[in-house]
Write a structure and sequence with these properties.
Elements: E1 2-8, H1 14-23, E2 31-37, E3 40-47, H2 51-63, E4 67-74, H3 99-105
Antiparallel strand pairs: 1-3, 1-4, 2-3
């Protein structure tokens, strides 16, 4: 597992272009965490990649006009994951028992 840290300006579509570079290669997005970083933004991606894919991702991310910096760290150490996260979460509008989601399906 490799943790990528991409700093970018938050303009329209920049985050989607960053994520699309990984999904286009069929890589599983194990973890994605985007947050403000001073005046800009940073997204941390946890991906299982080989050396060739690392080079391809760096090249594609640096070709995006609003990407300012890309860094790589090995494994989970470079990415802090929430210990309480156990899987997909229900939509925010759903109650604790998911009643809102069930009502929408009816």
């Amino acid at each position: 597992m490799q943790a990528f840290h991409v700093r970018y300006r938050n303009t329209q579509g920049t985050l989607m272009r960053i994520l699309n570079a990984a999904s286009r290669r069929g890589l599983d997005l194990t973890s994605v965490q985007a947050e403000p970083d001073e005046r800009d933004y940073q997204v941390a991606l946890l991906l299982d990649v080989n050396q060739k894919q690392v080079g391809q991702l760096f090249r594609e991310w640096y070709s995006i006009a609003d990407v300012m910096d890309v860094r790589l760290s090995a494994g989970l150490h470079g990415l802090e994951l929430d210990a309480n996260w156990v899987g997909p979460h229900p939509p925010r509008t759903a109650g604790a028992n998911g009643s809102s989601a069930r009502a929408a399906l009816a």
